[in-house]
Amino acid sequence: MSPSRRQQKIARVIKESVSRTIQSRLSDPRVTGLISVTEVDISPDSKNATVYLSILAPGDEKAPDRAFKAINHAAGHIQAQLGRDLAGRTCPHLHFEQDDKVKKTLETLRLIEQAQHEYEEHPLIDDAAESESDDQEL
Length: 138
Known about the structure:
Elements: H1 5-24, E1 34-42, E2 48-56, H2 63-73, H3 75-85, E3 93-98, H4 101-121, H5 125-137
Parallel strand pairs: 2-3
Antiparallel strand pairs: 1-2
Helix pairs in contact: 1-3
């Protein structure tokens, strides 16, 4: 079932509020790298919301996990700020999940680039076979 207009509006406000809070109001040193809210799913009763975070920290493999733990630790602060930003009687309870889509996309692009580079260095044998068959036809 697709979300209602109200749920879409609440999800947009949550996304903006959580992003702004993480970027400008959290002072935890574990929160490093590029952190973005990629998606927000709202339950049908609008009492719960799952916030998907993409955390990229080049050079340090453990930094995304540390940042995610810090964000979970600051969930109460993020929830309170959302309550101030959200116009309405109730504020959904936030649940955070790591979103690996961006990381997987970047890895796929890196692999494609690597394959292209390897192909340019060592063309496929088929190219050599084609030139041999062209020579035999003459």
